[in-house]
Amino acid sequence: MATCTLDDEDFEIFKKFKMQKNPTNSAMIFRCDTKEHKFKIEETIEDISLEKLTEEMSSSSPRYIAYVYRYTHKDGRISFPIVFIYFMPKGISPTIAMTYSANKQNLVNRLDIAKSFDANTLSTLTEDWLKEKLAFFK
């Protein structure tokens, strides 16, 4: 059951993150606080590649990641899409997995992010993986 909510204060922090004037590859990492039934911003990291980000993450803890990415299209245009990455490692507690899974869409909707991708290993989270996912969007 989807039970977590994002406080207005944290939503305002996210909006500022999303609307950066000079964007770089940046991540905002969220977690579920099951005791308070809230999404919490765990960390915001600016100017970081996906590969570097994975070095800072736990391979055994699920997380939601809002990631701003500098994307060069085939025609040379540059855009800065924001993507939602649902990181759910294999082998974690079924209760935790169900909580994160049930709340994923809640957070995607609140953040209003159109591009949402799932990953179950940190080694999946590479620039090549993200480019492949984004190639479907013109």
From TrEMBL:
Pfam families in the record: Cofilin_ADF
Major localization listed first in the record, in broad terms: cytoplasm
GO cellular component, as recorded: cortical actin cytoskeleton; nucleus
Single GO BP term: negative regulation of Arp2/3 complex-mediated actin nucleation
UniProt cross-references to CDD domains, sorted A to Z: ADF_GMF-beta_like (cd11283)
Nuclease listed as a keyword: no
Keywords, in A-Z order: Cytoplasm, Nucleus
Domain of life: Eukaryota
Locations listed in the record: Cytoplasm; Nucleus
PROSITE patterns named among the record's database cross-references: ADF_H (PS51263)
Start and end residues of each ADF-H domain: 2-135
Gene3D superfamilies according to UniProt: Severin
MF-aspect GO terms: actin binding; Arp2/3 complex binding
Annotated family: Belongs to the actin-binding proteins ADF family. GMF subfamily.
PANTHER family listed in its UniProt record: GLIA MATURATION FACTOR, GLIAL FACTOR NATURATION FACTOR
Record protein name field: Actin binding protein
Organism: Cavenderia fasciculata
High-level lineage: Eukaryota, Amoebozoa, Evosea, Eumycetozoa, Dictyostelia
